[in-house]
Amino acid sequence: MSGVDGTAALNAAKPKALPKAAEFAWARQRRADFRAAGGVLDLVLPLRAGGEGPALFCAPPLVGASWCYLSLLPHIGPEHAVYGLQSRGLRRPEPLTVDMAELARDFADRIRETRPCGPYPLFGWSVGANMAHAIAEELERRGEDVGLLVIGDATPQLPGKISIADDNVWLLCDFVLREFGYQPVIEPDDPDPVGHMLELIRARPGGGLHEWPDRRVVGLPRIIRNNLAVAQRHEPGRVRCPVLFLSATRTEETTAEKVAAWAGHLDGPVDVVEVDTEHEHMLLPQPIARIGAAIAARLRALG
User: Where is the Thioesterase TesA-like domain (predicted)?
Assistant: First the structure.
């Protein structure tokens, strides 16, 4: 989900005008990402070990898992390690972060444990961009060099009209299904959306979540709801590092409107790259090739 169109990601659980081919491609890629990542749920997921270049740290989108960033690897030079940051609560039941400041402190600690010395380039797509901005703030507050912040089609504020009330559980369950490559078919009047979600997952051996215990699958809507609430309540500050803004052009807001929304929160230089795609499909092969090339060029310069 993005601050650009806060309803986009959850509404995408029920595809409307999106091309069917793109939706099938999205589902196939999600299943492939799941298999390639091995279902690893560590707070820091090493997507690829690297060499001497600066490592890229990717903040999770709404679902909390960062396997989606595997699609970046063919486009980033092997000298750069790539790590995915992942939400608490995925691997085992535990208290979730209460606000963005706590989330940023937690991830900043994990980043510095992984790489004691910067710079610490950050990338976040959708809500992950809001998280990445907060992490950049925290690292700069500690005197660390971020070097590069990549904002993937997000704006600072998520609209509060997106409800996280109990009557939206069906929507959260549909979102889980879509994010993990299943067909999202749960309806608003479903009397037991969580049970239906589990039934659909158990009916597809090899689908990804089939081997997860029930408690872990049932925890996914809770993590999504918490990430949404944390992002909605957050009031971002400012960062000084250079910014690369990635804008999906098939959205209601223009690129200029999206970039202008960050005006009070970015003190460094801002480069903009437009990508001809929907927000939800930015990590599919064609758009990620353009995105990856833009990130790779700036990582090389940073190195």
Answer: 57-299
